[in-house]
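Hi V.,

Quick status before I head out on leave. The structure for the redesign project is tokenized and pasted below; the design run finished overnight.
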């Protein structure tokens, strides 16, 4: 991932340092998914060893692996945390979740969240996160979990009680960039995103940029737009390629978004400090 995102890293070098997070779980597709992936993408795509990493393995409630054509081929690409160096919009298209069937179990998700908590504590603080594909879905989940934590802290403050230390998420960031991500389809979180998209729950109040490929056949634009619609005032941009084309990502647009967030964060910090 670091090699494939060299262009993006260079475009952002004046405003941010990237810390790459490798997902903790290995993935080798089962026969049905392996065969479907071979037909769709060829042998160069299909993983042949446990070197491919995932944030979770999606399985159906009947223990069958999630289908390849629903965008759940697992990727080693995950969230990337951003930290500003020491020196220091396009119209959002409304789209709700494309499926009412949140029937998957995300095996290993809890361990991945704990893995990221440890990363934030060990190498943070971070100002933002970037995720691609399954990593984009993880960015959406982290954004949701952060908002839920903030809501809980506000309730505790109003009740003049304190959130136990072991309940603190330890994950805090101020913006999100989602590239070819999608609404999670697990039973625990999928319906929450659907309700946010339908206006039945407060949307995630976090500056966000969402990128999708016009020719993406793995995660189609409706799924990425559905995730974007779970955020308050998302920025959305399209590129002309498919799924696995970092060279076609709108790197300048992403870098500009990050630069604007950096300025906003620094301004808020100065105001808070009374400078």
């Amino acid at each position: 991932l670091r090699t494939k995102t060299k262009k993006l890293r260079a475009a952002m070098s004046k405003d941010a340092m990237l810390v790459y997070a490798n997902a903790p779980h290995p993935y080798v597709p089962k026969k049905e998914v392996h065969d479907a992936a071979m037909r769709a993408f060829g042998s160069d795509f299909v993983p042949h060893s446990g070197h491919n990493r995932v944030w979770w393995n999606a399985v159906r409630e009947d223990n069958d692996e999630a289908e390849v054509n629903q965008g759940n081929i697992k990727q080693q690409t995950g969230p990337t945390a951003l930290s500003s160096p020491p020196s220091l919009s396009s119209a959002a298209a409304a789209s709700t979740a494309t499926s009412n069937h949140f029937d998957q179990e995300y095996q290993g998700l809890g361990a991945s969240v704990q893995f990221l908590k440890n990363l934030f504590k060990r190498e943070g603080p971070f100002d933002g996160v970037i995720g691609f594909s399954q990593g984009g879905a993880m960015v959406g989940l982290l954004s949701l979990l952060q908002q839920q934590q903030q809501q809980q802290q506000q309730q505790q403050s109003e009740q003049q009680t304190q959130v136990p230390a072991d309940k603190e998420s330890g994950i805090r960031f101020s913006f999100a960039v989602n590239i070819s991500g999608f609404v999670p389809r697990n039973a625990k979180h999928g319906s929450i995103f659907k309700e946010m998209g339908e206006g039945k729950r407060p949307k995630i109040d976090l500056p966000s940029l969402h990128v999708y490929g016009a020719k993406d056949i793995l995660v189609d634009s409706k799924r990425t737009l559905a995730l974007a619609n779970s955020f308050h005032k998302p920025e959305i941009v399209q590129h002309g390629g498919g799924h696995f084309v970092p060279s076609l990502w709108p790197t300048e647009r992403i870098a500009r978004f990050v630069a604007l967030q950096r300025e906003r964060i620094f301004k808020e910090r100065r105001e808070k400090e009374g400078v």
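Above is the designed sequence. The first strand starts at residue 17 and ends at 20.

G. will cover questions while I'm gone.

Best,
W.
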